[in-house]
Amino acid sequence: MEKTRLGRTNLMVGRSSFGALPIQRVDFDEAKLLLRKAYDNGVNFFDTARGYSDSEEKIGNALHDVRQDIYIATKSMAKDSQRFFKDLETSLLNLKTDYIDIIQLHNPEILPDPEDPDSIYNAMLKAKEMEMVRFIGITNHKLSNAISAAESGLYDTVQFPLSSLSSNKELKIIEVCRENDVGLIAMKALSGGLITNASTSFTFLRQFGNVVPIWGIQRECELDEFLELEKNPPALDENMIEIIRRDKEELSGAFCRGCGYCLPCPAQIPIPMAARMSLLLRRAPYSSFLTDEWRDNMNRIQECTDCHHCKDHCPYGLDTPSLLKTMLDDYQKFYEEHRDK
After folding, report:
1. Which residues constitute the domain of residue 197?
2. Any domain includes 261
3. What is the spatial distance between Cα 146 and Cα 179, in angstroms, rounded to a whole number?
4. Last residue of a domain, one of 215, 247, 279
5. SS (H, E, C) the chain
6. Does residue 105 share a domain with residue 204?
7. Is there a single domain that holds both residue 224 and residue 303?
8. For the whole model, what pTM was predicted?
9. Considering the domain boundaries, does residue 266 fall inside one?
């Protein structure tokens, strides 16, 4: 596994790292198989979060005996010091460790004030002084917040969505992090599953030496694909550039990245999937979405209460209720045309 320096942390991490959000969807035995296979093949950086249900526990269960050989990043959505330390103690217990390599503030709407002694940032500093954490990071879906954090000198790492679909404006975060020696962790590198050819984002991001993608892995075949790409990295040639160009053309404009910050929904609409349904039907095997279960899921859009929780919490500023209604219309047409095929 080729390694790279994660900014001023000086941690040498694998250039393909493990995003552990998806393992909350598999059982402990399957998660252990994935995590140990990743470790055995050179993956040494694992990213999780207090909010990813039992993801931390699964990492602790699978990797506690090799803790000295790996780096763990987790996150807290706490808004105050008391909640932060409660989250941190839970994370340490779940991960079966006495320290976290990188504690990350999880997608705050506003960066905390470092001058406020009671701010969440100063709680993170205190945890570092107590040697409960080694480095301080932040994750964000807003480019302005990510750039401000990288330029502030306060954070050792920044985590931001980057993929082969990223605009030139979004790619500026790469140079900002390089100039400030901030470790840059790329989340959503497959754009929430809408990029169906993993080699495109792998190859695109590989050209930036300071970018560390955390690939969200749920199945062994997905892990195998990234391990094979590591062994034989494809070239960013004209053919690859053309595939990326077509993806950008098809996915241009406003679309849901599936980050999940719109949840919970009072009507129990599975928004991160439902709001991307048109794209999923055309870019993935569609048969899994033409089931009674998914038809019921999509019909819940008709029960939308217009509470605007989803719209108010979308980091990309999408008009989610309108988008969902468009997705329902498209789904119903697609269902009628394809259900008997």
Report:
1. 3-247
2. no
3. 14
4. 247
5. CCEEECHHHCCEEECCEEECCHHHHCCHHHHHHHHHHHHHCCCCEEECCCCCCCHHHHHHHHHHHHHHHCEEEEEECCCCHHHHHHHHHHHHHHHCCCCEEEEEEECCCCCCCCCCCCCHHHHHHHHHHCCCEEEEEEECCCHHHHHHHHHHCCCCEEEEECCCCCCHHHHHHHHHHHHCCCEEEEECCCHHHCCCCHHHHHHHHHCCCCEEEEEECCCHHHHHHHHHHHHCCCCCCHHHHHHHHHHHHHCCCCCCCCCCCCCCCCCCCCHHHHCCHHHHHHHCCHHHHCCHHHHHHHHHHHHCCCCCHHHHHCCCCCCHHHHHHHHHHHHHHHHHHHCCC
6. yes
7. no
8. 0.89
9. no
Question: Quick one: 201 and 112 in the same domain?
Answer: yes
Asked whether residue 52 is domain-assigned, the answer is yes
Structural domain total, the chain: 2
- Please give the structure tokens belonging to residue 230: 């590591």
Residue-wise pLDDT for 186-231, tens only, equals 999 998 888 889 999 999 999 999 999 999 999 999 999 999 999 9
Q: Is there a single domain that holds both residue 40 and residue 89?
A: yes
Task: Tell me the pLDDT tens digit for each residue of 315-341.
Answer: 888 899 999 999 999 999 999 988 876
Looking at the predicted structure, is the pLDDT value of residue 253 above 70?
A: no
Same domain flag for 126 and 31: yes
- For residues 80 and 135, state if they share a domain: yes
Q: Tell whether the torsion through CA atoms of 258, 216, 13 and 172 is positive or negative.
A: negative
